[in-house]
Amino acid sequence: MSGTRKVRLAKLNRERPMCRQAIISRSLAPFPSAAEWDGFSASMSDGSRTFLSDGLIKQMARMIAEGHFKPGEPKRRNCGMTSTATKLKAAYAELRRRLNAVPEEQRTELHGLTRAYLAMAEQANYRPAASSNQITGEIILDAAELCSVEQLQHEAGEYAHNFVEQEDTCAYHIGVTDYETAQAFVFGLEALKLLCGCAPRRALKLLQMAAQDVEAALE
Asked: Rounded to whole angstroms, how far apart are CA atoms 99 and 162?
């Protein structure tokens, strides 16, 4: 969905006080401007760009509709975002090369979980082991850290070890639901339980139902 449409539908978004506070306290502004917002990212006071969580996206749209940002204000300078994207892509490729270099007989559960972390980072821009705002999910890393393969590998390794520890204790930290996606949360959670058993086809159906619910919530 385009940024323009998200702003038009902003009146349907409920107020998210913590997201508003995060936007104001971190001086986030629509990227590249309020009038031409791309619908998923923001520029920071130093000119760098950051990708927003779903909650921040909806709150940003609401604030644009309210006139919080001036539509005609000058665009902030883009501090080498193309370069950053290229370096980040290179970091993903290097970690993938390192993982592929591990002999088949030496690949453990940790190796597989590290590959899963890389896939989440590369395909969903989601790095749960990175320093982040615990409320909005926004990654808090400077450009150098964000594009560092050593940082990425450290995160992936830490995530893998923590996952195994939670698996061994059967104690997983999930959090609380967002009201708008509560039903999708239930479908997803039950699908995970089925994936721990012997019903992958039923789990797939529940995951598809969860995806449909999330898509509806994002419209």
From this structure: 19
